[in-house]
Amino acid sequence: MPTVDRGMLIRCVEAATLAPSLHNSQPWRFRIDGETVEVYADPARRLEVLDPHGRELTISVGAALFTLRAAIRDAGWIPAVEAYPDPDEPDLVARVRPEQPAEPSPEAHELATAISRRHTNRRPFSSAVVPADVVDKLRDAAVHEGARLTVADRASRTVIVSLGRAAADRLRGRGGYFAELNRWTRPLPGRLDGIPAHAMGPWDALERIPMRDFGVVMSQPSRHGEEFEPYPTIAVLTTVGDAPAQWLQAGQALQRILLVATRLNLATTPISQPVEIPSIRDVLSDPRTDRWAQMVIRLGYGAPAAATPRRPVAEVLIAQSS
Ligand SMILES: Cc1cc2nc3c(=O)[nH]c(=O)nc-3n(C[C@H](O)[C@H](O)[C@H](O)COP(=O)(O)O)c2cc1C
């Protein structure tokens, strides 16, 4: 029987820090208490302009929570998760405990090996179509986490990318937008967060796909235009309800989808501008049925993307109080 020791839990926390987060803000902290890992949101790392309510912060922490679960599963344990266990402590997002020993299935193992291979890919993808059986697996990943992934058909894809462009324009007019982008865009000497120049990717020369304005304020000569795939595969991740519990669910679903996609050799780009402008988010949602768009994801095939930096595990671990 595998043992739960602090070293194993630290390795799982280290894996969790490889999760995606808005502008690589890494808004999480962890505390190991005996055999339990507590996952905390770090509100000091919230992006005030883009994310006034902390929705994307919670999605990012949810992605780290899913990654922690996947790493614990791969270490030979089925994790028990208690979300928001203490109403008096809203930043304590979850308690996770390796509960029952069980060999990981080959799928669980493959999912865990995708953790370090998954990177946001902002380069043009090939024009190859994402096959229906692959789309089904991504949909299943969302359902597994209590969310829904809808891959846009031809007509709605055109609408979603144009909504994305409209959202990007609106954000450019929001006070503090560029200053905040600048704070999270490299070069950031000595920092192990934010977006490095190598990860920004080119502009879409035809200005169709709403790539984020990384690098605008840095006047990066390296950020040139390139032609992107003419018919991007675009999917929308939704949840029923729009409170922190569902944001957390959306983050876990997002990371399960991204890891399954990575396992299937797909390239992925989370695109969140359309859900950062409330009136545009409403169009992608169905308020009548309380179904809310949480994220747009671009999927396809492309050359592998490189890793971005992470803060060391010692920096995200809260020291034991006793
Ligand atoms: C909530 C959330 C929103 C994101 N929004 C965008 C986005 O609009 N555009 C983009 O290019 N990447 C977006 N990303 C990807 C992050 O920038 C990326 O995860 C982070 O820089 C770390 O890089 P990595 O994913 O390669 O590890 C988002 C990620 C999350 C979790």
From TrEMBL:
Residues 229-301 form the Nitroreductase domain. Gene3D superfamilies: NADH Oxidase. InterPro entries: Nitroreductase (IPR029479), Nitroreductase-like (IPR000415), Nitroreductase/BluB (IPR050627). This is Nitroreductase family protein. It comes from Paractinoplanes hotanensis.
